[in-house]
Amino acid sequence: MLKSGEVRKQVGQRLRELLPAATGWQESADSRIGSQTADLVSRFQLAGQEHTIVVEVSSLGQPRQIRASVTRLNEIRRELPGAHPVAAAAYIGPQSARILKNNGLGYVDLSGNCYLAFGNVLIEKEGKRNVRPSTRPLRSLFAPRATRVVRVLLIEPARTWRLEELGKAGGVSLGHSYNVVKRLEELAWAERDADQRIHLSKPADLLEAWCESYTYRVNEITSYFAPERGTRKLMGDLARVAAGAGRRYAFTLNAGAALLAACTTSSAPTASTSAPPATSAATSSGAATTAPAAKPSPAAAQSSPATASGSPAAQASPAAARKVNPNTASIPEIQAALESAGVPNAARWAREVDEYKPYPADDPSFAKLRQNLAKYNPAPDVVEKIISALSPA
Fold first, then answer.
1. 209 and 220 both lie in a single domain
2. Are 83 and 118 in a shared domain?
3. From edge to edge, which strands make up the β-sheet containing 270-273?
4. Domain ends where: 194, 213, 232?
5. For residues 309 and 237, which has the higher predicted lDDT (pLDDT)?
């Protein structure tokens, strides 16, 4: 892990790279501003105007440290109204970035992410991965066993717990409970009261981070095809068969949304089941769960569109990848197609695809979309998976 002094030195150089037209750079470290000490103060001229950027360096850039930086930077902004407060770290993730932007503050990290907004300047780069992943990733917090503890806490977010109670309720050891709670405290998502009882301090942040890191593709997925077009009827058949077999189930993705919002349609019903798909009576149409499940279903199945195998014409066969026309499809439909193609963070990319339409019907390579996606620096295979899910007509 880089020390604050090393981060400060590299951030100074990073600012010069982001503002190549600026001149007359002057930098000072550990400058006293009112009751606060700024790690770095950079003064420069840009377009005939003088500017001052005040930098607060965090060694980790985790939400807990960033919230503390917000307090200090706001104090500096009151003491020095014309300055542009900026937080800096080796890596500033999406949640930390959101905290800073919501407070009207900029940020720069050493992984390539940044947000600078002052005067006529607006520079924003996001989506870069941590090039120095020395801190433990959130993946460890949302591993199957760890989520047992997380789930217990989220079910009753206002309750306070003793460590032994948490372990018992989650079915994990005392040591494992301790490790999960310690990680939550590091992220400022949990805290202890005067009696050392544990409770969530930021349940919404925890749930959002879980959603961002979750993918239903950790489950085993099987696709089926059915000539039957009655989606609601098929869902009813599947529900009756699952209930009759004593299996827990839940319709997910667009199928689940269609049950709550009449305007939502689903041509490929998906569902999560608690046991392997039945081979008689009916076959589950999928377990592509979009919300974290208590246990990753060992036989989750996604359909396109799915079938009840007891139907006269229900010879199950692998389904071809589903494509949509981005010029006419809704964002949920685009998202479903991207998920079927294995695109990670499909919700985010669906919004990007929708933003840059319309696309020329005579361009099957989607050159326009490729050009716009390039600014986010996605992995090449991600771009190809996105394109593979789309059809220009």
1. no
2. yes
3. 249-252, 270-273, 301-302
4. 213
5. 237
Is 162 contained in some domain? yes
Residues 56 and 118 in one domain: yes
Pair (145, 85) in one structural domain: no
If 0-12 CB within 10 Å is exposed, 13-18 middle and 19+ buried, where does residue 119 land? exposed
Half-sphere exposure of 284 (CA within 13 A, CB side): 31
* 348 Cβ contact list (under 8 Å, min separation 6): none
- Beta carbons of 150 and 168 less than 8 angstroms apart: no
What is the enclosing helix (H) or strand (E) of 255?
A: helix 253-260
Give this prediction's pTM. 0.43
Tell whether 209 is covered by a domain.
yes
Write the Ramachandran bin of 53: left for phi over 0, alpha for psi from -120 to 50, otherwise beta: beta
Q: Coil, helix or strand for 40?
A: strand
Strands 198-200 and 190-192: antiparallel
Number of domains in the chain: 4
First to last CA, the chain: 50
What residues make up the domain containing 364? Answer: 331-388
Q: Is residue 322 part of a domain?
A: no
DSSP 81-110: TT-EEEEEES---HHHHHHHHHTT-EEEET
Give yes or no for residue 108 having a pLDDT over 80: yes
Strands (E), the chain: 23-33, 36-46, 49-57, 84-89, 106-109, 114-118, 121-125, 190-192, 198-200, 249-252, 270-273, 301-302
Which amino acid makes up residue 329? A
What is the three-class DSSP state of 193?
A: coil
pLDDT tens-digit series, residues 203-252: 887 887 787 677 777 677 777 776 666 577 778 888 888 888 888 888 88
Question: What is d(CA 310, CA 282) in angstroms, rounded to the nearest whole number?
Answer: 5
Q: Distance between CA atoms of 154 and 204, rounded to whole angstroms?
A: 9
Residue 393 placed within a domain:
no
**Where is the domain boundary, 159, 187, 213?**
213
